[in-house]
Amino acid sequence: MADAERSVAFAPPRQLVADDFILRAWSVNDATILRPAIAASEAHLRAWTPWVVDGRVPGQSMEEQLARHAADFAEGVEWRYGIFSLDGSDVLGGCGLYPRIGPGALEIGYWLAASHTGRGLATRAAAALTDVAFAAPDVEAVEIRCDRGNVASVRVPERLGYRLETAAAGATESLLVWRTTRDEFARRAR
Fold first, then answer.
1. What is the C-alpha separation between 156 and 142, in angstroms, rounded?
2. Between β-strands 141-147 and 105-112, what pairing exists: parallel, antiparallel or unpaired?
3. Are 120 and 156 in contact (CB under 8 A)?
4. How far is CA 167 from CA 8, 164, 171, 177, 178, in A?
5. Distance (Å, whole) CA 57 – CA 54
6. What is the average pLDDT across 159-173?
7. If DSSP codes are grouped into helix, strand and coil, which group holds residue 89?
8. pLDDT at 42 (0 to 100)
9. In which band, very low, low, confident or very high, does the pLDDT at 47 lie, cut at 50, 70 and 90?
10. Across-strand partners of 178?
């Protein structure tokens, strides 16, 4: 993506530590623990996020894909994180900040390995990324998009106080778009 096309310019931290997980920018070395997490979660992921399973570029190894994620992070193209156990030995899921929804805005995406759902990890990871996004002075809005049938995913923006947009750009009948602005987020934080 050319510099002129980028909608947000900032440098988020490469790692964020929570009480029971770490968000860390992906590295090539993560391939050995990412493979089994995706393989064990294929049916679970395919229902709502098939690109996590199928998103590999034909002819590109997982190591090459993770190298691309690391390069994109460093270059400010998009910021993808792995969600890891505190000791870094287990991939719990993934999440990221994506500048694909227009100037001054970022989208948050997330997925969890099947064995790590139901613990609030996606909500806490999305909350951390919302904080990171609004730490950038030129970010005025953050969105989360998910399929209306994915009840667990829908609960994440609800819990965080995002507002449901009924006529958001790019929305389809099954796609829900949730949004919060810097001002809305600041009011909720008080």
1. 13
2. parallel
3. no
4. 23, 9, 7, 8, 11
5. 8
6. 75
7. coil
8. 79
9. low
10. 144, 164
